[in-house]
Amino acid sequence: MSENFMLPHLAKIVEARDLAAEIKLFRVELMNGGSDAFRNFQPGQFAFLSAFGLGEAPFGIANDSGRGSALDFAIARLGNVTTGLHELGEGDTVGVRGPLGNWFPMKKFKGKNLIVLGGGIGGAPLRPVIQYVIDHRSDYQHLTILWAARHPSLLVFTDEYEEWRSAPDTELHLTVDNPDDKWNHDVGLITQLLEKISPSSANTITITCGPPIMIHFVTKMLQEKMGFAPKNNYVTLEARMHCGLGKCGRCNLGEKLICVDGPVFNMEEVGGLLETFL
Amino acid sequence: MSNSNTEKKLWLISQAELEAWLDGIADARQLIAPRQISGIELYRPVSKSDEIDWQGLTHGYAPSNRPVLSVKEIFFPPTERLFSIQRSGQEIHLEESFPEWETVVLGVRPCDARGVKLLDALFLDTNPVDLFYARRRANTTLIGLACKELGPTCFCSSVGGAPDNAHDMDIMLYQLEENYLIEAVNDKGRFLIPSGEWNETTIIPHKSNQTVQFPIPKKGKWLEHFNDDYWMKIGERCLSCRACAYVCPTCRCFIVRDEMIKANKFERVRCWDSCSGKNYRQLAGGHRPRAEINERMRNRIFCKFYYYPEQYGLGGASACTGCGRCIEVCHAGVDITEVLQDLEKME
Q: B94, A242: Cβ pair inside 8 Å?
């Protein structure tokens, strides 16, 4: 007989720290065999985290499996489950169900220039991509990271910018909508930054995650102003999900299900459907 | 029905024989049959056959005497416990329990049995298999009852069904003037038939010639209609009450949440939900795709005829069984057959 696929693995929080305003990074280690399920999870996959007593919600896994067996999750305090998670700390038990969904085809991207565009907490599922490229640096050409947030206090993984910048052939561009006094990077939307950099589409793959409206305008600009073919614009999408396995029906994008057909898509696959997501 | 190549066995039994047989079933298993509960017809457990609403079961197929909810709830209950949670300090203990009952359902209509088949495509035939559904399905025998006539909102014959279609049953009953014909449709059904007690017969069930045909747009047509203004117009009627999904034999969207039982004790449950609901897609950050009522209604109709069939490999079939319950239950006059006819007119 099959297994109860809604039953999570138990995991211990081994680290909980502030990542940005109202955003925490949780590092969890799986208990009792759960680590087998998560062996070799791929950049872009997601998992459900349980705050027992409150429920569970899906989050992109924020680290690459090459960096160790623990799982990182960047969690903004926004709803019931995330508020519950924010109240937990080291040693507390959470549930983890996954890894779920498809992933960025990193092997297929070999030999390409990569542009990674992250908006706010949308940067979380892109961090494993950045880590993977840095750890396999010679497999890829130029890496450009465009990192944006509404305010400097909402930028995620700030303590890793030095690692990113110092990787060979890698550049990091930062922008915020509303700067503070200390801000000395770009100001404005990520599309303004993108237009300023105006990357060439030659031999280049873009990977975008952020608010739906950002994904919409970024991919539109890439295609209309920079001549990208939609199939070279990868995005990772989110939706309210309650199973992550194609059963609960909640995350459909037209006839596609974000949980099992995604969350990673290229714009050739979902271009016409993205409007229903906004 | 007249195909004699298959080893189809039919018996002629009286009402008394049927009731005696059901009483025997109810002694050993859970028997579920149509009952009047506070004036509402529902599939509910019965301990003796005289608790069954025979009047409702055997007199036509008017909306008042068909169960308000389909047999979906027997396999996929409105609320189901997925596991229990016990918390002590920083530690968590999870405990599972699964449905074990051997169940027999009497009086299943062909449209509802078809609905179960359509849910099989999702819960059984598409990995991963849903353990709860699979257990209930394996432990349940369906005794169908052919409909004598189509009800006012019935349109099963438009979506591949028929009022006397035994295909998705284990056992099928056909009402005659005084007696019943009973047919063992498959091995699971044959297992429940008493050996040597009933009179075998060669009488062939009267084939229903009642039919109603509404046009079902072809697969490719749905996308062409996606951006039609029509959805704005028809969507204005919808109240987002979700009753259509509640009574639908194939709507299966669910929500998962934790419920507190007592201090430090919780249950994770899944409950029916519907894409017609206002907050169905709302994310914790406040973003709410498909915010407009017409978008939600369009999604539900598309799901029945295009999305679900595509997602779960139904081929040319639709995920609507033509039971018409959504038409009966809608306070705002949304009629799925009207939508189908309107779409055809727009060609």
A: no
